[in-house]
Amino acid sequence: MTRVFVPPALILLAMAACEQTSAPVCTLEARAGINLTIVDESGQPVTNAVAQAREGSFVETLQRTGPGILFGVFEREGNYDVTVTAPGYKEWRESIDVDADECHVIPERRTVEMESE
To answer: Which terminal residue of the chain, N or C, has fewer Cβ atoms less than 10 Å from its own Cβ?
Structure first.
């Protein structure tokens, strides 16, 4: 059996070249940038909550996927002023920054505790 000596510098050079040429493998899914779980003071879902995300002239009403679960701003990075309203509760407001990597937005998750009026 013949042994081949490969200098460590050559190995490092090959590894560096691979890192520079490899592109990320992105999925086809669309990710929601803002994901909210809306609860009352006792931790129960607020089922009639409505949330809006605003950035400049862009306004989106978030979609509902279940009791107290709202999401939106798919694949759109930015700084959003988010408001949540529900009858019998004080309005909730927060600024949420949504960043992105090479492929998708990085989802921001919040649990919003609504305060009774």
So the answer is: N
